[in-house]
Amino acid sequence: MSVAKTGKISPLDPSAAEPFYRQIYDRFRGAIASGVLNPGDRIPSARALTKELGLARGTIEAAYSLLAAEGYIQARGQAGTIVSPDLKPRTPVAAPMLETIHSIALPSFRPDSIMPFQMGLPALDVFPRKIWARLSARSVRAMQPSDMTHPAIAGLPALRVQIAAYLQVSRGIICSPSQVFVTSGYRHTIALIAHVVLKAGDRVWLEDPGYPPTRELLKHMNITAVPLPIDGEGMVVADGLKAAPRARAAVVTPAHQSPLCVSLSLPRRLALLDWASRNKAWIIEDDYDGEYRYVSRPLPALKSLDRDGRVLYSGTFSKVLFPSLRLAYLVVPETLVEQFEQTMNLLAAGSPQLTQAIITAFITEGHFARHIQRMRKLYAVRRDATAAGLESVLGQHMRIDAQPGGMHLILRLRGRRSDRRLAARMKEEGLFADVLSEWSIQCEEASALLLNFTNVESQRTAENLGRRILKLM
Amino acid sequence: MSVAKTGKISPLDPSAAEPFYRQIYDRFRGAIASGVLNPGDRIPSARALTKELGLARGTIEAAYSLLAAEGYIQARGQAGTIVSPDLKPRTPVAAPMLETIHSIALPSFRPDSIMPFQMGLPALDVFPRKIWARLSARSVRAMQPSDMTHPAIAGLPALRVQIAAYLQVSRGIICSPSQVFVTSGYRHTIALIAHVVLKAGDRVWLEDPGYPPTRELLKHMNITAVPLPIDGEGMVVADGLKAAPRARAAVVTPAHQSPLCVSLSLPRRLALLDWASRNKAWIIEDDYDGEYRYVSRPLPALKSLDRDGRVLYSGTFSKVLFPSLRLAYLVVPETLVEQFEQTMNLLAAGSPQLTQAIITAFITEGHFARHIQRMRKLYAVRRDATAAGLESVLGQHMRIDAQPGGMHLILRLRGRRSDRRLAARMKEEGLFADVLSEWSIQCEEASALLLNFTNVESQRTAENLGRRILKLM
Fold first, then answer.
1. Structural domains of chain A ordered from first start
2. Which chain B residues are closer than 8 Å to A318 by Cβ?
3. Which of A217, A353, B151, B460 is placed for a possible disulfide with B350 were both Cys, Cβ 3.0 to 4.6 Å?
């Protein structure tokens, strides 16, 4: 073995075909796989190894980056660099439910990067990966030179058609494919909207509490947030009319307010549309999870009521398929189509052909609609199981909000306990939690944890997780 | 048949599982495939068909968009909508050279969307598609839940390592993987740079003539261009020192000036670096095709001389792999790493995991380096063949610049002929041409065509294309 138990490394071979960084990587990997180095063992710092081997610092860093990227090692700041403590032989993640997990040949050590309760993630264990792999392989085999040129800026035409058809059926939105723009995610969508219809100094109504990236992005573009409170009917539109009637736009999450999960009531929807029409303002509808409602049929989108073309509708594949696809979409009023085409052309040059082609096939062949149906049922079950499990263990310390839909639970902490402090402790223990107070701008929300339930597969799991939280309180 | 020769369509079936737009699409496709409708035949306008069938306009538009997207029909403005005139049974595109073309099962009609001379395209006929398809299928089969979560914002760690290693070997750039940011293309790169280091009102040196999207994007962000002329040594740095010594940045294409193809001389490189260091200005090096030099070894990047951390280096996979990947990268000085991480996080959320994983495998297994080597040789041959072919037919009317590298030829028109008028005529005939005068800001460049040669596979082809151009003069 060329890496000793102390992490010492024997001289490298300058005549080898492999570059130095790769040789170093291979040696550590080998030492870990063979048990010479064990989980938790400390290895030399990049600085020390640089000195020891007389190589460029960048070479050692390249090797360490690769090892860290693949989960073999972890930098622990002052505590130095160690072999990942949670390395274990690779096992299938969670229980395969709708699809059997395809057996694969990959490095046999790799930590699972999904933290329980991580916000925004769909149930990844039950995604039909075999079907997805089959459609992907077919798409890439069918690739012709004409599929390799610059893709259409606004998105693959066939995908835009499918999205328009889907929105009509499932969200009540009537639009032509030319109004649909494929983007690389919600942030890209919002940045694009800001570039087209907003300018520095403009004021925009935001929900308070609300999704933090929206306000961060607008702030970066020197746009002023006008925070509006949320009550049982959603955003309090009347407060906006009082505080900033001439604002240029409003960003809303009408299906399930993010993060409080209330739906925007019909009177509020109409008031918002009326304000936008009379003031030539824009409504940005963030319909991030409108599909997921469990107590009744999903509500039609606000956009479906938009007679005057004031609503820009933002949807995403991150929640109904998976986030690493980096594909989302935006529906704009007809009057804005040309401006969006021009701005999109300026700022980027379309999304990858392959991922778009795979989704198009997935939708066209009916898998998309089926998957959403299945997830709607599964999430209703997982939500109840997670709530019951956490309630049984943590009921004395927390109260869980009743909600009609969404992908997370709101656990309100009793007493004066700080959600931030608890979440910080949870993170140290590998339990992800978002906290309500960090989603607030100026409203004084009680302390609460926001916990995604879609990857909690049973009440027993939820109880176990609850017990881990209890220990930290 | 349910579409008559006149384009009349029989009533649709409301009880069918297929939505209306799909039924309409299928009928037209069937009519075209079976020869009931022929290339050039006129079909009813969406408006007329809407009336005729009593359906929503959006339904008809969805069907027509899909038909147009797949190349079956073309909208011709006032002249109405017709069956695509260039529909023909699908045949392999150009001659397979390094890889045999994989046989595929796709719709049997589809026009070839690659126009001869289209700028910025690599030789798509010789891309190793079989290898690519194999690596892609493997990547997607290996996909685990942890590959489906939000991808690392700055790029797949293993890909950043590979890019850093590649840049060291092939472009002389020493950087750590943490300085490498994966973006979705050159425009995304430039927009990101502008968000981090520039602000509205700043002045930036630009090459004149130069790549139009750079100046359009900066203009959109209210940044003022300071155009600098190009001579035999590249950008005239002395003019910048005179006109705007306190500019915040300079955008340059040192390897082969875009579009004039001259290389930035060493004295100019040093003068530029000196200016940037003394004024704390930034140099944005657009190394879009630095790999492609045919008369000698590729020059090291300007970034390789950057001792004071003033150069932001922009590279892309569009030219060495293919554009529909939508993947590029940016190397930033260490001092800017944190700001880029933050801004990237605000404005987008990373590139797709799949395309990054495929490229990583392609590089790791040596295909990337081999492909570039092969293309370098092939392009030298195609450049000479294209120049010889065009020269022999058009020599009286044009003069071809001698150039050490790049992917296009510059055909300077003799006399006072307008490049714009000729290019417009060429486009009508399906021949793409960029024109030098449109790349100019205020310099008075002679009329010239910019013709990509990478997809012209022989001197004979070039002669035929030359004859088509000759007819238009």
1. 20-94 (1.10.10.10), 145-365 (3.40.640.10), 370-472 (3.90.1150.10)
2. 150
3. B151
